[in-house]
Design a protein that fits this description.
The protein is an alpha+beta fold and 389 residues long. It has eleven helices and seven strands.
């Protein structure tokens, strides 16, 4: 179990733990609505969750990276879709540390109720015009966009003659749009994480002023430890924290089921069957070892960040490996518990079927998908990773 670094970190963890208890009663409503209800998102915002990684200068909490991961895990334990929205809102808040102060202050400053979301993939085209950019694009997986105040989208930058800009290859900026500038499409009809509201969204020739964007790969404006962590690394760990919350929920659910269920033709409850006991032990080992490894990698990277140094490629690779490993170990644990639950697992009233559906959707996120193992393996073998870590 993670030990909070400060009383402020602990207060945020306690806030999240309270939602661990409250959210299961909301899960059906969240799934049916295919989005996080506005009042729940507002409560998260007012509790500081979306400002957890925002610099103190803009009213943020600037918590330890491990605190952010623990908070996401706890909310996801209550409801995976809620945890996913928290993950997106929290990690997008990191953009505040990299954009010009005037724009960061305008978007985030002294506004704990503000939620920013977005997609880093460069599906947009930003043409340089006087005073800023004219942006057109369409992005999938806009989680939380219906509750957000600001929505960003990765965009390739072009000059006025529509030539790709960038000294060392194409320049990609995360352009920040007001929600009123964005059209949200009703596309989120899926098997798992149904309540995340991850619809497609688009903009058409929207003006974004100079400075209201963040160039991918640029350094933060603050040299404090949190902002030495790569944004994509924090996003990957956030995704895996949702998987972790789902796995903990599946384990707790199965323990309750095992104490009362007697399989057809048997007089023994599941809890008294040796095969089930072994499967539970394997699941615990997968979940707890993955969580411990992730926190180990965070601690090691944080030691470097405290010195003010940029994280090495090896450190970044370690964070990404821990994130991918956590997600895939959690999937293995949930699958094992789902199978051990037998026919009881398939009914709508069983949290196990929802855990099964939700955790498999987490594996589809690019930040923790199977190719990450290849990238990390290249680093370990002394080769060019040929990918952003």
């Amino acid at each position: 179990m993670y030990a909070a670094e400060s009383t402020r970190d602990q207060a945020l963890i306690d806030f999240a733990a309270n939602w661990t208890e409250k959210l299961p009663a909301e899960s059906s409503r969240i799934e049916q609505a295919r989005r996080l209800p506005a009042e729940i998102s507002k409560s998260f915002a007012e509790g500081g969750i979306y400002h957890a990684l925002v610099p103190e200068e803009y009213g943020g909490l600037e918590v330890h990276p491990a605190t952010g991961i623990d908070v996401i895990k706890r909310v996801a334990h209550g409801d995976a879709s809620a945890g996913w929205n928290v993950m997106i809102g929290m990690t997008t808040g990191l953009l505040s540390a990299s954009m010009p102060a005037a724009h960061a202050e305008h978007i985030y400053g002294d506004k704990p109720g503000v939620m920013t979301v977005g997609v880093t993939a460069p599906y947009g085209k930003a043409v340089k015009v006087e005073g800023g950019y004219e942006v057109t694009g369409r992005w999938p997986f806009g989680s939380g966009s219906q509750n957000a105040d600001w929505i960003c989208g990765g965009s390739f930058v072009f000059d006025v003659e529509e030539r790709v800009m960038g000294k060392h290859g194409p320049s990609i900026h995360l352009m920040m749009f007001e929600q009123s500038q964005v059209e949200i499409e009703d596309t989120w009809h899926v098997s798992g994480l149904r309540g995340t509201g991850s619809h497609h969204y688009n903009v058409n020739k929207v003006f974004v002023p100079e400075g209201r964007s963040v160039e991918m790969g640029s350094r933060a404006n603050f040299q404090r430890p949190l902002y030495q962590f790569p944004m994509l690394g924090m996003l990957a760990m956030g995704v895996s924290a949702v998987s972790l919350g789902i796995a903990h929920k599946a384990l707790d659910t199965f323990k309750d089921l095992a104490g009362v269920k007697k399989p057809t033709g048997s007089n023994r409850t599941l809890v008294n069957r040796p095969l089930v006991q072994a499967e539970v032990a394997r699941s615990i080992a997968d979940i707890e070892s993955a969580e411990a490894y992730m926190h180990h990698q965070i601690r090691e990277a944080y030691k470097v960040a405290v010195t003010g140094e940029r994280l090495s490629t090896e450190s970044k690779a370690g964070l990404r490996l821990a994130a991918a490993n956590t997600t895939h170990k959690c999937v293995a644990a949930v699958d094992r518990l789902y199978q051990a639950g037998g026919g009881s697992s398939i009914y709508e009233e069983s949290p196990l079927q929802q855990c099964f559906r939700d955790v498999h959707v987490t594996t589809q996120h690019l930040m923790v998908a199977a190719p990450i193992y290849e990238v990390v393996g290249r680093v370990a073998l002394g080769l060019n990773p040929e990918s952003l870590l």
